[in-house]
Amino acid sequence: MPPRTTSQLVQDGKLIEERPEVIVLVVDDTDTAEAARLRERVAQSVRASLLAVIESRWGSCGSADPAQWHAGDIRAVVARPSAPDAAALLTPLEIPALAWTTHTSNEEEVEAVMAGVNEALGRRLAGPGEEYRPLRTAKRALELVTGALAPVGEAEVALVRSLPQGRIARLLVASTRDDEGPGLVADDVPSQTALSMTLDTEVVGPFTTRDSTCHAIDEGSGRLAAWSRLVHAEPIAFRCDDQDTWDMLLHPGWADCGVTCLAHPLAVDDGGAAACKVMIDQADLERCDAARGRRDPGGQPTFVERLGEELRRCEVVQLAGADLESCRHSIDCPGCQSGFCATEVPELVPQWGCEPSEYPSPLRFIGGAIEGRRGWINITCSTEAGE
Questions:
Q1: Across the strands, what pairs with 376?
Q2: Do 312 and 301 form a contact (C-beta atoms < 8 A)?
Q3: How far apart are CA 236 and CA 242, in angstroms?
């Protein structure tokens, strides 16, 4: 056997971060067949969006590892355009199923959310004589959930307090008819503060379209059309029958993070332990959570600064004993504590993403060991290279 030499591999970068999200739905609440069909289609769009999120969390920018967290926080707020302000919002506080906070991200969870969305969309329809003002409703709801508008009343105060820090918003306004508001359309445009915290704004309305596309070719001169131009939305005709258009309406998009490939294999001892140290610089300054496989380096609280922000440094524990054996050889890793190992599970170290001369990284992180917002990860390992 040729002699082996050891070199050091250092990887340092930001953890992949999925920010908490609030989806604001302002959907026609008219008691007509067309509006009912529109509400059904909006619900289908929400379902397609959440299923796409699952695909992303388990895909190349997430992990196909069933023993790793697939975490996220997405909430829906339904704002009813004919209701008075005090009765306009339905939120996770009234319908808990509207909040999807998870570590597992499975389709059964999505169906629970959809039950809440369908309930909220159909709970209160427009009453006789009520003014239909989706634009003002959208402005108030978006500014409220982004923190750009001070809450009024106990319900709004409770909603704002319940929302996660660092959240972003997405807004969908969908209508079969034009807005009936009396003032200037520009007065109903959300503030720049709210729009800057909004990932996208979608508008569906009574627009003219070609048979071959759902995108409007003539928005007309109505208030909804003027508003869509002011918020830079690409309007969609509500009579659209193309399912792909509805499925993509709230789609989160795609990302390809690729596979980590190494020039040399990691050094692993006879007991299966990798010669690696893994550090997480986390935003939580209070503690390194042992339940997530983290501890203070050397048993002492350690603080660092990155890009002007103070962070707490935590060491990720390498699994040992039966947990190490399971992490290395079982894809499910039943009963494993949080931490990391150098795995040999074939599904988790695919060769297809690397050149023939390279080695896929075998590092596997169990539970919530590397999940967290505004975090950085530093991995230092010894590798083996033949001479």
A1: 14, 281
A2: yes
A3: 11
